[in-house]
UniProtKB/TrEMBL annotation:
Summary of subunit composition and partner proteins: Homodimer.
Shown segment, full-protein numbering: 248 to 613 of 613
GO molecular function: carbohydrate derivative binding; glutamine-fructose-6-phosphate transaminase (isomerizing) activity
Protein species of origin: Algoriphagus ratkowskyi
Name of the molecule in the record: Glutamine--fructose-6-phosphate aminotransferase [isomerizing]
Function noted in UniProt: Catalyzes the first step in hexosamine metabolism, converting fructose-6P into glucosamine-6P using glutamine as a nitrogen source.
Superkingdom of origin organism: Bacteria
Length: 366
C-alpha cells in the first residue's frame, strides 16, 4: 500500500506531480483559456462582489491560505485576511454578508475550522470550502466548495494536500482576477499556461532528492534551524519549518527574511543552519542581502534557488536547484525539496515519520 516507498510521507511527496495534475484536470485548459471550478458556479456573483475575503484554517492549511492572500491581492485586488481558525472563532470578529470566507482543510474535520465556519455563517457570510476528504464535515457545512482531489493523505505531516490546496486557490485567484477585470486577458492566459506546467516542474524538483539526502546527513544533528523567505516564499519558509519540527523534533522557525534583523539574527552563529528560499523573483536581490547578513555572522546557508543561479551559489554552503516558475506559483515547487529534507532528516534520526509523537491526522478537538 506504500507503493514501494518506505513511508506514506515519501510516497505522498512523490505523488505530487500527479496529485497537482489531478487537481487541475477538468478545470484548467490553458490552450482554450478554459478555467472552471464547478463549486464556484453558483457563487461567482458573491465571490466577485465580495468586499473582503477571509481565509481561515489551521497548520499547513493556514500556510496555503497565506500563499492565497498574495495570489488574491495581486491578481484580483481584493483585501484578504488570513486567520487562524482558533483565534477567529473566539475573537468576536467583524464579519458580515459582504465577506467571502474560504475555509481550508485537508481532513475536513478540524474542530476549530468548523467552529470558525459556523460563526461566520451565523453572521451572514458566504462560506467556501477547500477540502480534500470528500463528504467530510466541512464540505457538508459550507455553502459551496472545491475539493483538492489529492487522494488520501495518510502521513500525518501534510504534503500533497498542501500543494493541491494552493493549486485550487491559485485557480480561484486567476478566475476572480479575470472576472473582475484586474487581470488582463493576455496575462491571464499566460498564467494559465504557467500553472499547467507546474506538475512537470514538481517532477523536476523531486530529482533533487539525492542532493538533499547529502544535506540531510550534514544537518541531521542540529538542535535549531531557521527558515527564511520573502513574498510568495515567506509561507514556504513557515511550512518548511513546520515540516521539520513535526517529524524530526528539531526546533525550527520560519520568518519573513526581512524580519531576521528584528530579532532572530541574534541566534545566528556557526551552529545555526539557515534555510533560504531564494528563487529568482521580485525580492531576489533583497534575499541575497539577507544571505550575506547570515554569512557575515558565520551561519550555515542552505538555499533553494532557481536553476542557473549564480549569486546565491557564490554565497551559500549548499544550494538546491529547482526549475524557474512564475513567482506566484513558486511555492508549489519550492516546498518540495523542503518536504524531502525534513523527511530524510527525520528518517536519519530514527523518528516515526508517518506518525510523529503527539500529533493526529484529524484534530477534532479544540
Ligand atoms: C501539518 C499538519 C497540521 C494540519 C492541521 C490542519 O503537517 O498536518 O498542521 O495541517 O492540523 O488540518 P486540516 O488541514 O485537516 O484542517
Amino acid at each position: 500500500e506504500k507503493g514501494g516507498y518506505d513511508h506514506f510521507m515519501l510516497k505522498e511527496i512523490y505523488e505530487q506531480p500527479k496529485s497537482i495534475a489531478d487537481c487541475l484536470r477538468g478545470r484548467l485548459d490553458a490552450k482554450s483559456g478554459r478555467l472552471v471550478l464547478g463549486g464556484l458556479r453558483d457563487y461567482m456573483n458573491k465571490f466577485q462582489n465580495a468586499e473582503r475575503i477571509i481565509i481561515t484554517a489551521c497548520g499547513t492549511s493556514w500556510h496555503a491560505g497565506l500563499v492565497a492572500e498574495y495570489l488574491f491581492e495581486e491578481f484580483a485586488r481584493v483585501p484578504v485576511e488570513v486567520e487562524y481558525a482558533s483565534e477567529f472563532r473566539y475573537r468576536n470578529p467583524v464579519v458580515g454578508e459582504k465577506d467571502f470566507i474560504i475555509a481550508i482543510s485537508q481532513s475536513g474535520e478540524t474542530a476549530d475550522t468548523l467552529a470558525a465556519i459556523e460563526l461566520a455563517k451565523s453572521k451572514g457570510a458566504t462560506i467556501f470550502g477547500v477540502c480534500n476528504v470528500v463528504g467530510s464535515s466541512i464540505p457538508r457545512t459550507t455553502h459551496a466548495g472545491s475539493y483538492t482531489h489529492a487522494g488520501p493523505e495518510i502521513g500525518v505531516a501534510s504534503t500533497k494536500a498542501f500543494t493541491a490546496q494552493i493549486s485550487v486557490l491559485a485557480m480561484m485567484a486567476l478566475k476572480l482576477g479575470y472576472q473582475r477585470g484586474t487581470l488582463p486577458e493576455n496575462k491571464y492566459i499566460q498564467l494559465l499556461h504557467e500553472l499547467e506546467a507546474i506538475p512537470g516542474k514538481v517532477e523536476q524538483a523531486l530529482k533533487t532528492n539525492d542532493a538533499i539526502k547529502y544535506i540531510a546527513e550534514e544537518y541531521k544533528d542540529v538542535r535549531n534551524a531557521l527558515y527564511l523567505g520573502r513574498g510568495y516564499n515567506f509561507p514556504v519558509a513557515l511550512e518548511g519549518a513546520l515540516k521539520l519540527k513535526e517529524i524530526s523534533y528539531i526546533h525550527a522557525e520560519g520568518y519573513p527574511a526581512a524580519e531576521m534583523k528584528h530579532g532572530p539574527i541574534a541566534l545566528i552563529d556557526e551552529e545555526m543552519p539557515v534555510f533560504f528560499i531564494a528563487t529568482k523573483d521580485s525580492s531576489y536581490e533583497k534575499v541575497v542581502s539577507n544571505i550575506q547578513e547570515v554569512k557575515a555572522r558565520k551561519g550555515k546557508v542552505i538555499a533553494v534557488v532557481t536553476e542557473g543561479d549564480t549569486q546565491v551559489k557564490a554565497l551559500a554552503d549548499h544550494v538546491i536547484e529547482i526549475p524557474e516558475t512564475h513567482e506566484a506559483f513558486a511555492p508549489l515547487v519550492a516546498v518540495v525539496p523542503l518536504q524531502l529534507l525534513s523527511y530524510h532528516i527525520a528518517v536519519m534520526r530514527g523518528c516515526n515519520v508517518d506518525q510523529p509523537r503527539n500529533l493526529a491526522k484529524s484534530v477534532t478537538v479544540e
